[in-house]
Amino acid sequence: MPIKAVEPRRLYRQIADQIAALIRRGEYRPGARLPPERDLAAKLGVSRPSVREALIALEVEGFVEVRVGSGVYVDDARRMAARRPVLPPDSGPFELIDARRLVESECAALAARNATPAQVRQMKAALASMSRDRRKLVVPLDGDHLFHLRIAEASGNSALALVVQTLWAQRTGPLFLQLEHHFDTPALWSAAIDEHQAVVDAIEAHNPAAARAAMKRHLLHSSSRFKRSFGK
Asked: N or C: which end of the chain has fewer CB within 10 A?
């Protein structure tokens, strides 16, 4: 039998597997509310974002139902039996945002030095597409993706552009999209569009420090928008 490389399991996956095992053993019955995130984090000795990532994975897999403002509840046995998607080995949503903040902040600073007028126009076109979709109450994910990719391309470093594209492939994966689903509102996207505008303004002004700060601020705000409590 050929030897296969051993891949370490991501922390949120380890947490999710522990909670799933408790559900299977009947520690938490169908319809029961799980302990609050802070209590689970304390018992497991991990961060609350890691617990949140685990709960979202369990929701995608059909073990639990997240009710923002109420809590996280064990799904009924029939629904659990019917849903067992195989999740890709993506990074957790908060890990992903942290990585994007590091990489894309520097991309924005480089774009402020290197972007041509044509590239700035492409960024503005992507931003305009986001605004149009928001007005139509359509999630402006396509324009958002294009905006960030145009900035990475304008950095002048093709390797960085490839990294951003790879991170975005995970940003549109099931874990991130499910987390976003719970907090996605027109107001959220309005705030995000305003933050994007600050980034492109700094790039157009050829101000690397301001562009870096604006992108970092945008992604910090993105993370905080997904940390609103699931419970009361």
From this structure: N
